[in-house]
Amino acid sequence: MDNEAALSKASTDKEKAGNRVVVSFPVALHLHYINKVRPSEKLVPGSLLGHDPITDAEFGCPPCVLLVGEYSVGKTTMIQQFLKSDYAGSRIGEGPTTDAFFILLYGQEHKQVSAQYMINDNKFPYQSLKYLDERTLKRCYAVYLPALFLRYVTLVDSPGILPKSEEPPRDYEYDSVLNYFALKADSILFLFDARRPLVSDEVSTVLKKFHRFESKLLHIVNKVDSCNADELRLAFHKIASSLARISPSKTLPYLYAGSFWDQPMRHPVNYERLERDSYLLFRHLRYLTFKIHARRLDEVTCRAARIRAIALVAKESDHLKRRLSLRIFQKSYLKKQMDYVIYPMMLKRYPLNPADLPSARAMAHSLWWSFKSRKPMFNLAALRKLEDFLQNDLHRFIQVLSYCMSIHAYRPELKPPPPQKSVFTWKTVAWMASQLHWREIFQQLNPSQDTLDFKQIMPHIESTGTSKATIERIWRLSCTRHENMVDEDEFCLFLFLLELSKQSDWVPQELNEDMKPPKGHTRQSKQRGIEDDQSLNKHSEKSGKRSKRRKGIFSRRKKHKKRSSHHRRSHRSR
């Protein structure tokens, strides 16, 4: 009440001053709710409205995300990945570990408080938990953490759904608390285990209860990295077929792939699907921070429309108060008046939605006690304020909301997270080649001009048992330098990809630069060899020329000697 008085006083002061003050959307909606909706709401019995009044703390709280699923599907681990830390009360194990509801809120200090005490705090947005019994409240805790994620999203960790064969008797109203948080949540993340894809009867029962929350229900298949491609395909098929039998809609819901833990991936085949679905999931969570304003406006509008319908019915039924004083009719007569006279007349006279009118029995009962206790269910001044909100103020809120939505729609989206540079690098390939002597195998296959074609390699890989389509795909990836030919480095890359496909049933769509052999690695060696050959040839040519020169010199000397000796002989004979 102190917050209500302060807000109403602030609004009246601003009106008197005539100054235009810019406030946030939740604060403006809260002010209009207090000044124009709540005066009429106080006069209407709560039994006719169906829901509790919207508390002050609900207007400023961040969106709520509820995590539901069987035990050991990874709900708590997923929350720890979101928060980058543990929280008080969290336990992780193979069996059922969490047996309480934990409401994770932002706070300066890390502390855990029972919901029995928090329901009396005006800043706690879930004060309506007070209608649960004491034993159930003992199973609900508010945990405050200084995590940045909780500034924008409130998380609710729920106990796992237990099968009847393993279920110990729960001593509290599990279904009531789960339904309460599903009603309050802006999004529900329903987790499945990829290693246990069979949907039990208990999970089916919970999913059937969540049919009315289908618009905010997301299905996540967790622990995807523990399955290879065939196992993952089978798990998705089983879960999708089970959901098809349960879901009333004709279209199947989208199944998000998830692996929310800090361990390295066991099967890289699922990496691309995980990256894409993680991006979609976080984009959905980010959009909740805007979507919650539309939900609050919708709640206030629906509540105001129902209050207006009840107040108008009470106004049109006010003339029946005289007959009640004369005791000429009872509740049954008042119910008939509602069914056959007042309700048809109301729908003709006022633009009302029939869904906003309560049942004739409930309305007759409330009017009966209102006439007897002389407590009116409407006030003309309060009704005028309510009409002003629905006819004038609501359109302004919708304009602001639609403008914000257009900004959000045309704003460039954040780029998806950059893909991992590579699952392996060329250093890994080179190390494997040295360990398994792949370069020696390349030389044994008698390469022509330091390259091998597909026919030369086939006899070596026929015994691997890999499908022909996979081998051809790996071959195309390996031929990075030559068309349909591989050199020594590419041959090592080919054998490495072949081993990778056998171990993990995965082949990359394309190779990153750090996966390929270094550019010019083999070419440089070839060029060095050619240069060495050329230098040797030049050296041999030079040495040949020298030898020829020497031979020419020797032959000339011999000829000169012969000539000189012949000349001497002829001279002597003379």
UniProtKB/TrEMBL annotation:
<dbReference type="InterPro" id="IPR000261">
    <property type="entry name" value="EH_dom"/>
</dbReference>
<dbReference type="InterPro" id="IPR011992">
    <property type="entry name" value="EF-hand-dom_pair"/>
</dbReference>
<protein>
    <recommendedName>
        <fullName>EH domain-containing protein</fullName>
    </recommendedName>
</protein>
<feature type="region of interest" description="Disordered">
    <location>
        <begin position="509"/>
        <end position="574"/>
    </location>
</feature>
<dbReference type="InterPro" id="IPR027417">
    <property type="entry name" value="P-loop_NTPase"/>
</dbReference>
<feature type="domain" description="EH">
    <location>
        <begin position="434"/>
        <end position="522"/>
    </location>
</feature>
<dbReference type="InterPro" id="IPR051943">
    <property type="entry name" value="TRAFAC_Dynamin-like_GTPase"/>
</dbReference>
<dbReference type="Pfam" id="PF12763">
    <property type="entry name" value="EH"/>
</dbReference>
<feature type="compositionally biased region" description="Basic and acidic residues">
    <location>
        <begin position="528"/>
        <end position="544"/>
    </location>
</feature>
<dbReference type="InterPro" id="IPR045063">
    <property type="entry name" value="Dynamin_N"/>
</dbReference>
<feature type="compositionally biased region" description="Basic residues">
    <location>
        <begin position="545"/>
        <end position="574"/>
    </location>
</feature>
<dbReference type="Pfam" id="PF00350">
    <property type="entry name" value="Dynamin_N"/>
</dbReference>
